[in-house]
Q: What sequence folds into this?
């Protein structure tokens, strides 16, 4: 077994069971990509078993802090069984859910979502890439699914020195290989394509927030709704289910908007109640303000403006601008659902950004709820970086 030894004083994070070891913390030792190493402190004491990644700034990702544990196929089977068992206890109101959430489930770099009878996985780090075959076998055994599609095409693989990969990992020989799946979420039917959709096909982390938005649209009688960065219209369907009379979905992807319109029909809503606009959200907000339009509810769910803290300042300006415009576009008493999925912007900073946007817009608002990812995207107490999605539900005064 190869050994990676840390510099004096750099063992503190592993002693607190944080799973990352950065390049600058290492005094000596190296290994092949994804190879399991023994991580030791400066005096040779055991700290963790981890996966070595020679190309990444995160040089080691910890598998286990138990010196007696073996990192083999049975280890991955056990971790996957535990993750699946947790989701069964959560009583998710959908046949689509996240089964494995990386570090939170003790499997750094592995994301697995389930869409009905189809699994979709992302292998985003060298360790899980090395154990891909064993992990695929364990996933099928733990879930009973026979279809597993790989979407390891995220840009973060480049940081691991890994090329993008997409395609079927497992499927029955008689299976035609269709990648389109229809799921049910809170009684709404939604079409997902695991090969073409964002991430693994859909934004499952917003599941509970979509339901809550639907409830609040009904509670506050929101008739006109603006859904910015709408993707395939999950929040638009939620608004219509909540009684909205007109929903404007704005996105820069024509195929996503076409799917949003399909969702309107799939759920039996009047097509006249939904408008899909292929346009820039920021420019659309400005134009609608100039036209004197007002909305009773606005959703802002933009892409990741700040992947790391180094991008936070630039991202803060972007978040502030779209929220300032949204405050201006909202009717008095209107509802703003605003989100950030940027890891470089924590919940406290996001709140300050939105507060500043309100000040610049000359309005105040009641913070009625803080929003986060659905519980099948868990955060552990030892890995707060996992808390990436944060949101605010605000009523404009």
A:
């Amino acid at each position: 077994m190869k050994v990676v030894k840390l510099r004096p004083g750099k063992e503190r994070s592993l002693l607190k069971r944080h799973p990352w070891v950065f390049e600058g913390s290492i005094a000596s030792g190296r290994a092949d990509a994804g190879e399991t190493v023994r991580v030791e402190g400066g005096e040779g004491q055991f700290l963790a078993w981890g996966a070595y990644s020679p190309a990444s700034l995160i040089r080691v990702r910890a598998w286990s802090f138990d010196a007696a544990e073996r990192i083999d196929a049975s280890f991955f089977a056990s971790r996957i069984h535990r993750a699946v068992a947790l989701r069964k206890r959560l009583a998710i109101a959908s046949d689509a859910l996240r089964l494995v959430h990386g570090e939170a489930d003790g499997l750094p770099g592995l994301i697995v979502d389930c869409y009905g009878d189809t699994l979709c996985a992302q292998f985003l780090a060298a360790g899980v890439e090395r154990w891909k075959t064993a992990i695929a076998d364990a996933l099928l055994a733990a879930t009973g699914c026979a279809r597993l599609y790989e979407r390891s095409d995220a840009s973060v693989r480049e940081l691991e020195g890994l090329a993008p990969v997409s395609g079927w990992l497992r499927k029955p020989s008689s299976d035609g290989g269709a990648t389109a799946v229809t799921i049910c979420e809170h009684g709404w039917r939604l079409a997902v394509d695991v090969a073409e959709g964002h991430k693994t096909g859909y934004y499952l982390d917003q599941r509970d927030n979509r339901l809550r938005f639907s409830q609040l649209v009904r509670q506050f009688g929101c008739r006109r709704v603006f859904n910015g960065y709408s993707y395939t219209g999950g929040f638009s369907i939620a608004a219509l289910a909540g009684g909205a009379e007109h929903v404007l979905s704005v996105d820069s992807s024509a195929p996503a908007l076409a799917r949003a319109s399909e969702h309107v029909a799939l759920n039996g809503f009047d097509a006249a109640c939904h408008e899909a606009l292929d346009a820039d959200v920021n420019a659309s907000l400005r134009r609608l303000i100039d036209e004197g339009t007002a909305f009773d509810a606005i959703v802002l769910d933009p892409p990741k403006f700040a992947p790391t803290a180094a991008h936070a300042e630039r991202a803060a300006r972007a978040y502030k601008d779209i929220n300032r415009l949204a405050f201006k576009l909202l009717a008095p008493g209107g509802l703003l659902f605003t989100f950030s999925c940027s890891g470089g912007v924590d919940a406290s900073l996001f709140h300050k950004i939105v507060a500043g946007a309100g000040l610049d817009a000359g309005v105040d608002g009641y913070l009625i709820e803080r929003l986060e990812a659905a519980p099948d995207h868990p955060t552990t107490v030892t890995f707060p970086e996992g808390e990436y999605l944060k949101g605010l539900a605000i009523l404009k005064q």
Notes: Residues 273 and 389 are 29 Å apart (CA to CA). The chain has a mean pLDDT of 96.
